[in-house]
Amino acid sequence: MTLIADGRSEYQIVTPGRGFPVEERAALDLQDALFRMTGVRLPVRWGDRVIPPNPRILVGQRDADQPGLWDRDRYRIEPSGRDLLLAGAFRRGTHYAVHAFLESLGVRYFAPGAVHYPRRKVVRMPRKAVTSESAFAYRHVFYPTAQEPEWALRWKLNVHSGADRRWGPNASAHSFGHSFASLVPTRRYFDEHPEYFSLVDGYRRRERPQLCGTNPATAEAACETMARWIEQNPDRRIFAVGQNDWDNWCECPDCAAVDAREGGPTGQLLTLVNRVAERFPDRIIATLSYAWSLEPPAQVHARDNVLIVLCHNQGCFTHPLDGCDLNAQFLDRLRRWKQRAEHILIWDYYVDYYQYLLTTPNFHRIGQDIRTYRDIGVDGMFCQGSACRGGQFEHLRQYLQSRLLWQPDQDVSALMREWARGVYGPAAAGPILEYLDLLQQRVDAGVHMPRFGMSRIDELYTPEVLERSRQLWDQAEASADTREHGRRVFAERSTEMLARLLHRDHEYRLEGDVLRLHPPVDAALRDRFVEAALAHDAPFLREDVGAPESFGRLFGRDWPAVVLQSDALQAVVVPEMGGRTYSLTRKQDGLALLAVPSMHQSVHSAPFSDGYDFSVQARRLGPGAVEEYTVQARSPQAATIQADLDAGLQVRTEYRLAGAELTAEHTVTNTGQAPVELTPMVNPAWSLAALGQDAVLELRDGQGQWSAQPINPDRRPAREVPFAGPARPAGGWRLVSAEHDLVIEGAFDPAEVDAVEMRLTGWMIQMQHLFTPVALPPGASRTFRSAWRIGRR
Known about the structure:
Layout: E1 2-5, E2 12-15, H1 21-38, E3 44-46, E4 56-59, E5 74-80, E6 83-88, H2 92-104, E7 108-111, E8 114-116, E9 122-124, E10 130-133, E11 138-142, H3 144-147, H4 149-154, H5 180-183, H6 186-189, E12 199-200, E13 203-204, H7 216-232, E14 238-240, H8 253-262, H9 266-279, E15 284-289, E16 306-312, H10 328-338, E17 343-349, H11 363-376, E18 380-384, H12 394-406, H13 412-424, H14 426-444, H15 463-479, H16 483-492, H17 494-502, E19 507-511, E20 514-518, H18 523-535, H19 548-554, E21 559-560, E22 562-565, E23 569-574, E24 580-586, E25 591-592, E26 612-615, E27 630-635, E28 638-644, E29 649-658, E30 661-670, E31 676-678, E32 681-687, H20 688-691, E33 696-700, E34 706-710, E35 719-724, E36 732-737, E37 742-747, E38 753-760, E39 764-771, E40 774-776, E41 781-791
Parallel strand pairs: 2-3, 2-4, 4-6, 11-18, 14-15, 15-16, 16-17, 17-18
Antiparallel strand pairs: 1-9, 5-6, 5-10, 7-8, 12-13, 19-20, 20-21, 22-23, 23-24, 24-25, 26-32, 27-28, 28-29, 29-30, 30-41, 31-40, 32-39, 33-34, 33-36, 35-38, 36-37, 37-41, 38-39
Helix pairs in contact: 1-2, 7-9, 11-12, 13-14, 14-15, 15-17, 16-18, 17-18, 18-19
């Protein structure tokens, strides 16, 4: 039966009636697409305004149910006599039905600006009914285009940023991430109820805490907030009771007992989650299995309305779960979680957090892993991508992930070919697909990506691969058959150019008073890369950091330095690098005492990290730590530098090197018209390689006595220990290394410093001084001083 033939049709598009915004929007989308394909614009009518004899394309139904907690989406395309019904569950399914019907006619939604509407003289009625159900109940592809409701519904996703009634019910969670801080906030509860928060290293944490999971009163406070969230968001189904994004789980006796029984701190977490879930049985209570809560508990089960959000952020990110030894632990963990929880949502990472624009060749992993998740019985998928546009073939990733989340058994290679031809044109698509296949061959040969973010992957981007990649992209640019295809090829080529820029053995060397990159960067390639990244609409090259323009300015540049010398030490200060001390070296053996900024590989965040910096607000890389300073005075042992900050603040820093001691004095002046509240912080990042994991921290008490403790007794990958109140050292601390016969002693005025915090990572030990808050009136100045003495054990 023919719907449209040779520019004519009897058909009318019919919605259920007035007041059906979902069905009306879907009907208009259908009308527009059919017009683009055939030149025939079918009339859209309400149910009570049809022309009786004329056949109908019925879009939606009058009655539609609401989604239950765990329902999957579905739609149907159903011929009935001369009529055709396009409808789906929960109203949003009507959009899926319309777009599935259009796809059956050859429409393809590749990317914004790349929607394919084939020209057709004839459009026929389907021969038989088609019904389809989604493989996952929750389908969220976290890229900007997929957040737009129009594109989400074209791709049959049910999570997006849309809030109006045209899109139908949105499965978007109120929250399923890190919610402890807002669920039971310290500013509201800590002063009267410190027992609600985690006990770590012998005291309750105000700064960067977790919640005390076994305390019933903590659960009551969480339920009070949860009840308010639900009242304010009655249409949301998913609400989070999720750990904060750091360690510091509770070590109180009750939590420790539960954790001992359950085999780890997931025990205390699930105790709290279950208590909250019991109070709200008509909602899904989600919690993260992430970082310290990855391992499932040994005995306790999650309640039926608990959703475990299991994060795949360990293992290999180029190879599929099944078949890669690095992923065996995660796959085993997933299967064990299924024994403890009925409902699991996978948070998987398909993006390189360190390099948004560097291609991660994991397209075939996407298909295979989504099938694995489906087969194990996972309820939902959160596909973590970049939070901003541009890079890593983002539109191809969205296209693949969206289609596979509905029906995982599709051929990934066929989808990639179809997409590339639709976006770049048939001629240019060939070499681009060959480029992706080149990278995939390296992956298949055994190249792993053991973290979900890497600045370089040297085993993948070998010199031979880089050269062949250059040739293929030259061919693609030359083959583009339209101006628009050429623009898209050039923009996407940013990924190949970045690989060539990063994968060279560069190092910064101090030459006189300049830090200079060796060998020099290819400036022409860098500038062309920046142009391509901007053509790709990429605002950042890494999560929230590093605009392309900044990359062009910073990558490979020379950095004027001030070199201070004494008999024992050399300090290199780089004024334009946030006024920081770039390096501090013990002359007797060349031992690098500070963690040196990795300015080449991590140009998006470095050079504004590591070394020593000062900020006027107590946060990492706050004001004062990133601005360019100018040199006011210098001598072989001292230098004064200055920078103007926002809010009328001026920072004048004097560094002095005398013997084995480095002193930093930061004078902050309020040149503005209004008072400013300061909470300054100094942040030396001492090299862990210079100290070793077996170093000890010594703190001085009020009687001048020193007490020692290991820096990392449990061998954690990261550790944060604040020393405040009675635990605050009396003006001094020491890091002592027997291995390198080294003592680093920090000194400060105890009347001016509220706390000292030790932060340990895999390569450095930060010993931060958090100064007492200061109200600085207009015209006033205040000096903040710290000193470090380098000695022998």
